[in-house]
Design a protein that fits this description.
- The structure is a homodimer.
- By secondary structure, the first copy, chain A, is an alpha/beta fold.
- Chain A folds into four domains: 148 residues, Rossmann fold; 115 residues, Rossmann fold, CATH 3.40.50.1820; 107 residues, Rna Polymerase Sigma Factor, Chain: A (Orthogonal Bundle), CATH 1.10.1740; 203 residues, Rossmann fold.
- Chain A is 33% helix and 18% strand.
- The first copy, chain A, is built from 20 helices and 22 strands.
- An eight-stranded mixed beta sheet of chain A has the order 1-4-8-5-11-12-13-14, sandwiched between helices.
- The longest helix of chain A is centred in the middle third of the chain and has 16 residues.
- The radius of gyration of chain A is 28 Å and the shape is elongated.
- In chain A, 57% of the residues are buried.
- Chains A and B meet through α4, α5, α6, α7 and α8 of A and α4, α5, α6, α7 and α8 of B.
């Protein structure tokens, strides 16, 4: 077969190869699909593709959900001379982020689409003409119900994971709340629980352009000219929102196409104009105006936040381990919107990871950052419990055999001794997750980390830990009172702008706060100050603009005063000199201190 | 007259009252205007309005430049029963930001417009039909040339100020570089020296929508249906870019209009859709599709950065005092673009102020923040030298009689003694400008401040000081080597994240760095550390999340070590205890220290 293929062997080697789109007929009489709008629809054709092998236990199925203009053809090639593979070929294939050697991958064209699944340009059986605007308005919920129907048709009861970006991510969220018992892991990328006013506005402009096109004729354009002008304008507007200002600047700047001076006319002369024009023209070749109307409307309507009154209420029954990925430069579905999902799941005590990837590609980054997104997806799939739902998916520490091989830092070892088995631990500034990983193995805790560095966050995900990407000074106030037994802050206190406030927050969020820090009143430091009259030389922070140097000279005595004044009990004080405990004169002799503090009535130490 | 007026007397009292639009005919034969595109145009009709009285010396004229869809009618009412005043009535009138009791204000419709000035829907004298797309492509430069022609027609040789927002700001910039000798002060609001790729893309979509409208017929639509659908789409796209995501969220959120549930059809049901639809419909009533094409093209073409190879080169001959105002949430013409103007002028040693106003209103904030923008404009107009150009406008300290009434802080008094008369001084964290104001009066320095707080920046502007709104740790690296004689940092060193790096930068940018700080090695502090083993209690920063507490315990000895290591000379060391100089054991006895440091060979103290 390979000999007849136009692609070099290297290309096909890491591809799923030649694939074809299948058709399923669902909701056949007497069944029909009851839509959110109140109308019913059936039978429904669904176009789908699959890659990889379904395991005998049927426990390795991964559903991939596509975005607005995607389709069932997510990976591989339809013909040997295809110029381009499926839309997410960078992610799906042998050895890739979604490894088809391990997983059985399914991707289906959405309800309302124009690539083989029933949609507004399908034939209306009642009239034998295309539906046009007589097609019922469909929603994300309806799309997911059809996907569920397809999985049943394929004999798959549970998904190991559901994965998708943009509108695909909305479907992922819907899966977790509509079929909580059917999803072990959910990976929602560059998405939102609901569109904001600005996104609705952009969609509305696109729809207006289509509806205003004289060739649209109420969606019954199939016999005559197509509403290409309107659809092309809609695509141009959309395309601007998929990129970022920085990305556009890098790609086009103010370059002129094929010229070094202005032409002083109204042809497309800036490269960015030519690009948009090309995007518009190419789009009308492959997409249907009616589908564009219906699918953007479905996106506008989706509002998980309004469901049951709040996002917290809507996500109360989620059982899946949810992984949220956003991109710094995505201004269509912003990181703040992704954070709403993370916060809601947190407030329900659910297992969730969050990573905000620094990329210049805007919303499109979910397709254009295969390396980092791939690492995350691979990690999340590996962490998805195959034996689920027998174990409690919200308990993040039950993968004991994967950890414990970690060489712990000295202060981490001391901190670990302070933690009771099977407690809930929040590690602030958790780095790559060494402490949490060890605690999970040694103490079977339910751990969670907060970390500023994206690579460290990815490392945590690869260890299967629950982690939030962010600045701990901003993260703490988002967390509910007493949501942890221990909140740990190791060797970071002196680098904070507001250490006192962070300690207060740690005591609000956790029953016990565990802090380790270098003691600024160690005799060597005092001697320097008394005899030589200066503090540590690094206090001028000369190293680099970007360093996070220690900002403060805090001592054990400082912390003790802080506790006395704030009515905080010191449950344990471990004063260390060269790694060994010192008892007498700790504030003079200790170079490093670990404190366990509490405000609650009872202590909570082993 | 008031009795017949539909407006309540309160409204008219602070209005310029009833006004009318005048017409001037410029560039009559044998003259004609040579356009940037190479073609010529003439005669040119110009519609304009004026408010206030021209002074006998003709030195109080303020030109207001309008944005894309504005016109000559900037203030007052055309008829007693007008529902709305001119487009910038909040800013122009007796006692307002541009006070018509003091200034003679002129506003003219731009070349290419559709409100009385010659444009593409005017009659082409050669054919006696509207020009349509046969009208020559015009530029911002051409618009400004026509404005200059109008001023000459009115007998005004020099402008006290030229003011404008958005595209009006581009005209302001063009005035400063094209007619440097004719402008004393330039106030450029929410503008850019050139559009970025994203803005060009949005304009291109709008133009595409108009050009694709079957009613456009190559711009010759005047006899039949108008291209309202295309123009309305263009306006909708534009309108989204004029607001901010936050502003749209506050104004509309996901509210439905007249409904509490979805209608499941394609009518406009979200409030934001209705709003956009209304904006589109209202716009086609008042604006011309041809003008929209031509004016957006003029904006896309404008590129002050490319002129002479760089923005620095383009602004080399600017004589006006330039004031730049941007808005945090403006994503169309971003604060970063405003900063490019400021940086270029700085690098040429020009007088410039910059304020970045925190507003949720996006680009439209230039019309919607009359209070703060008004305070700034009022201050800038007051600071514009009426006797200009007799004095050197780039020297910011020549208004001696306006200052010197300031009660100086003790450390400021000491610092002032260190400064040579008529030198160049940069004050980092200048607050409301007390030190600079005093230095201007007492030492006639050329001063400039950097300040983080917007209100303090406005205060500086009201004192007529040159000031940049920003974080000094970010501002310093933008400044050229040795661009100041003194760089002052008073009582801020210990609150910095990177004090050492800031000192290095101060010594790069200035010949002498003057720094005042509380001495962390004062005996009382040493005693506390030695005997009680803790540093200052405020070092835990418990006060508030938003405070900028002192981060570091720095001593005179720390600074001396820093200087020794860095080969920095200490020109002067003033050690103070309770405001009095101490000579012996300064690091032990001084509670406050002022140091003058240098790296250059020669000292530079009085």
């Amino acid at each position: 077969m390979l000999s007849s293929v136009a692609h070099p062997p290297e290309t096909l080697r890491d591809s799923v190869g030649l694939v074809r789109t299948h058709q399923a007929t669902l909701f056949e009489p007497p069944d029909e699909l009851r839509l959110e709008c109140g109308r019913s629809l059936g039978p429904i054709q669904v176009a789908y593709e699959t890659y990889g092998q379904l395991s005998p236990q049927r426990d390795n199925a991964v559903l991939v959900c596509h975005a607005l203009t995607g389709d069932a053809h997510a990976a591989g090639y339809h013909a040997p001379d295809d110029k381009r593979p499926g839309w997410w070929d960078v992610m799906i294939g042998p050895g890739k982020g979604i490894d088809t050697n391990s997983y059985f991958v399914i991707c289906a064209n959405v309800l309302g689409g124009c690539k083989g699944t029933t949609g507004p340009s399908s034939l209306n059986p009642a009239t034998d003409r295309p539906w046009g605007l007589d097609f019922p308005v469909i929603t994300i919920e309806d799309m997911v119900k059809v996907q569920k129907g397809l999985l049943e048709h394929l004999g798959i009861e549970r998904l190991l994971a559901v994965v998708g970006g943009s509108m695909g991510g909305m479907q992922v969220l819907e899966w977790t709340v509509r079929y909580p018992e059917s999803v072990a892991a959910a990976i929602a990328i560059a998405t939102t629980p609901r569109l904001n006013a600005q996104s609705i506005a952009f969609d509305a402009v696109g729809r207006n352009a289509i509806l205003a096109d004289p060739d649209f004729v109420h969606g019954q354009y199939h016999a005559g000219s197509l509403p290409d002008r309107g659809l092309s304008i809609a695509r141009m507007v959309g395309h601007i929102t998929y990129l970022s200002e920085e990305g556009m600047h890098r790609k086009f700047g103010r370059q002129l196409r094929n010229a070094d001076r202005y032409r002083y006319d109204f042809t497309n002369e800036f490269s960015v104009e030519t690009y948009l024009d090309h995007q518009g023209r190419a789009f009308v070749e492959r997409f249907d105006a009616n589908s564009y109307l219906y699918i953007t409307k479905a996106m506008d309507y989706y509002d998980l936040t309004a469901r049951n009154g709040s996002l917290e209420a809507a996500t109360r029954d989620v059982q899946a381990k949810v992984h949220v990925i956003s991109f710094c430069s995505d201004w269509l579905f912003t990181p703040a919107q992704s954070r709403q999902i993370v916060d809601a799941l947190h407030s329900n005590g659910k297992a969730v990871t969050y990573c905000n990837i620094d990329s210049p590609y805007g919303h499109d980054a979910f397709l254009l950052e295969p390396e980092r997104v791939g690492r995350l997806i691979r990690a999340h799939l590996a962490a998805a419990p195959a034996d689920w739902p027998e174990t409690d998916a919200t308990v993040n520490g039950d993968v004991g055999d994967r950890s414990s091989l970690v060489e712990l830092r000295a202060d981490h070892r001391r901190i670990e001794e302070l933690i009771r088995p099977q407690s809930r631990v929040l590690d602030l500034g958790c780095g790559g997750g060494a402490l949490l990983d060890s605690l999970r193995g040694a103490k079977r805790v339910r751990g969670k980390g907060v970390e500023l560095d994206a690579d460290a966050v990815i490392e945590c995900c690869e260890r299967g830990l629950s982690v939030t990407h962010g600045d701990l000074e901003h993260e703490l106030p988002r967390l509910a009172d007493s949501s942890y037994d221990y909140v740990v802050l190791s060797k970071t206190l002196r680098a904070l702008r507001h250490p006192g406030r962070v300690l207060e927050e740690m005591l609000r969020v956790g029953r016990v706060a565990v802090v380790s820090f270098e003691n600024g009143a160690h005799w060597s430091r005092r001697l320097r100050m008394v005899l030589r009259g200066h503090s540590a030389p690094e206090d001028l922070g000369c190293c680099s603009w970007r360093d996070t140097p220690n900002l403060r000279e805090l001592s054990l005595e400082n912390l003790e005063r802080f506790c006395r004044r704030g009515n905080i009990r010191i449950l344990s004080c471990i004063a260390l000199s060269k790694g060994k405990a010192v008892r007498a004169w700790p504030n003079l002799r200790a170079s490093e201190v670990i404190l366990a503090l509490t405000r609650s009535g009872e202590g909570f130490l082993p």
